[in-house]
């Protein structure tokens, strides 16, 4: 029997039920009980007690001691790399378990979560490889001295992860932070802590020294605040909403602490009149409706050349109406439930707002009328047009399967509308002409531009946003530097005393 054949009530979610992971030790949390639910049917998967500010304080203090211990701090890069490889091995050996666990907890399809688990393992392997080839810099001499630039650990990293793809997001924070020689205190999202706790078990079994990792589920206003404001936390990395990110930035400013913030988006996806329409339709749909639209980089604003606007929307709406909704663990499902009914209701409220603003709902726009889906947090994939780009529906992040379509007349009009947003995380261009694609890509205000594809990621390629979509860049070979302090070292080569004192 596989996990797929097992009823949710009997799934072996955690090796130690209702425990949190504090500085390498499993123990009962001190906070209130919280029911973690399956968004496909509303059933309780597990009740866990949440961490408290005292738990966070203990995790940070012990993390600081572990990070300062020469047994960890003085390891050579290739020796730290061995730990990352072991963690990657453990993740890969538990792919099915992690994928299904995330599907039950977030509603994502098993196909997607399997890919996310593979991405997490790949992230640890990538940063292990970067460690194997990491060099300090011998900088250009400007006098009779030798100059070097070296990277050193910060100490304790506070990592606050989102609920939409926990295993991959966790890895993208934990792996480079450990690679840089730090300890990590991770706070998973309140709704989706199970995968993060399971990942902690695997990392512990891989032999990471005690104290270097803590996983503290709980409320952001309690655990998150305690981590951000703790004097021994040297950096915070956060993925989530812009308002929360702004609050973290304010708290970090008080401490003069660096932060990495991956925040919201309202990403434009653009279809030019010379695009392959069938490829563009499929790409636009994947960009907004995969992950049930619960993605910061979702292509949620669609700009189509007016000359092909009606034809394109007809194709898009017809295909969208054929998408299959269901539980994420059903292999036929394309659109799973939203993470929680409260979030589903927030998305539904935005569609109601679109109607009030004068938008036309071309498809979707409702909770599905299907007995199979009645108890879950489902919402039909929705396409809306007839709104100006200045409307709230077009300007505010909905974070659900809702696409707003707008026509444009010429490239000047397109750039003006696409860049008219407080966000600047991602964008997409569909065209058959590489020169047009290059010119538009350079003019779009976004941290990532996809051309004739969408939502493709590589851990080797830096990622970040502009404007209110965030601060800092992570991933890539320089990703370890984001979790390091840079130090300059000068070696004097003069054989005679400094003449100034003579």
TrEMBL record:
Keywords: Oxidoreductase. The active site is at residue 262. GO terms for molecular function: oxidoreductase activity, acting on the aldehyde or oxo group of donors, NAD or NADP as acceptor. Residues 26-489 form the Aldehyde dehydrogenase domain. It comes from the Bacteria. It holds the Pfam family Aldedh. The keyword Oxidoreductase applies. PANTHER family: ALDEHYDE DEHYDROGENASE-RELATED. Belongs to the aldehyde dehydrogenase family. This is Aldehyde dehydrogenase (NAD+). It comes from Rhodococcus jostii.
């Amino acid at each position: 029997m596989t996990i797929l054949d097992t009823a949710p009530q009997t799934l072996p979610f955690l090796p130690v039920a209702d425990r949190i992971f504090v500085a390498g030790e499993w123990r009962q949390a001190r906070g209130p009980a919280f029911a973690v639910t399956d968004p496909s049917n509303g059933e309780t998967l597990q009740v866990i007690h949440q961490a408290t500010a005292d738990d966070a304080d203990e995790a940070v203090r012990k993390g600081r001691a572990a990070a300062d211990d020469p047994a960890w701090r003085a390891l050579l890069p290739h020796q730290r790399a061995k730990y990352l490889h072991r963690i990657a091995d453990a993740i890969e050996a538990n792919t099915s378990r992690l994928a299904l666990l995330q599907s039950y907890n977030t509603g994502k399809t098993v196909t997607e979560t399997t890919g996310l688990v593979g991405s997490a393992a790949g992230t640890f392997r990538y940063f292990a490889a970067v460690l194997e080839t990491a060099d300090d810099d011998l900088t250009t001499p400007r006098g009779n001295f030798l100059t070097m630039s070296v990277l050193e650990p910060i100490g304790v990293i506070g990592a606050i992860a989102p609920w939409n793809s926990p295993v991959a997001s966790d890895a993208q924070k934990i792996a480079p932070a450990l690679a840089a020689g730090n300890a990590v205190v991770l706070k998973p999202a309140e709704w989706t802590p199970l995968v993060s706790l399971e990942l902690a078990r695997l990392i512990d079994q891989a032999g990471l020294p005690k104290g270097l990792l803590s996983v503290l589920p709980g409320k952001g206003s309690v655990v998150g605040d305690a981590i951000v404001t703790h004097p021994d936390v040297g950096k915070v990395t956060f993925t989530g909403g812009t308002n929360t990110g702004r609050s973290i930035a304010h708290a970090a400013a008080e401490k003069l602490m660096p932060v990495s913030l991956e925040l919201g988006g309202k990403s434009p996806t653009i279809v030019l009149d010379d695009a392959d329409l069938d490829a563009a339709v499929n790409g636009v749909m994947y960009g907004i409706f995969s992950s049930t639209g619960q993605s910061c980089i979702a292509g949620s604003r669609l700009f189509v050349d007016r000359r092909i606007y009606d034809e394109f929307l007809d194709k898009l709406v017809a295909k969208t109406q054929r998408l299959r909704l269901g539980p994420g663990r059903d292999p036929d499902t394309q659109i799973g439930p939203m993470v929680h009914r409260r979030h589903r209701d927030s998305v539904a409220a935005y569609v109601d707002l679109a109607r009030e603003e004068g938008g036309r709902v071309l498809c979707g726009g409702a909770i599905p009328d299907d007995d199979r889906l009645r108890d879950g947090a489902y919402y039909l994939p929705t396409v809306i047009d007839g709104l100006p780009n200045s409307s709230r529906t077009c300007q505010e992040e909905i974070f659900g399967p809702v696409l707003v379509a707008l026509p444009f007349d010429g490239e000047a009009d397109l750039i003006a509308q696409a860049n008219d947003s407080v966000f600047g995380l991602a964008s997409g261009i569909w065209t058959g002409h590489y020169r047009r694609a290059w010119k538009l890509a350079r003019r779009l205000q976004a941290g990532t531009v996809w051309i004739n594809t969408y939502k493709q990621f590589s851990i080797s390629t830096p990622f970040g946003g502009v404007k209110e979509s965030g601060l800092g860049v992570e991933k890539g070979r320089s990703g370890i530097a984001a979790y390091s302090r840079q130090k300059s070292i000068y070696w004097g080569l003069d054989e005679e005393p400094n003449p100034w004192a003579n």
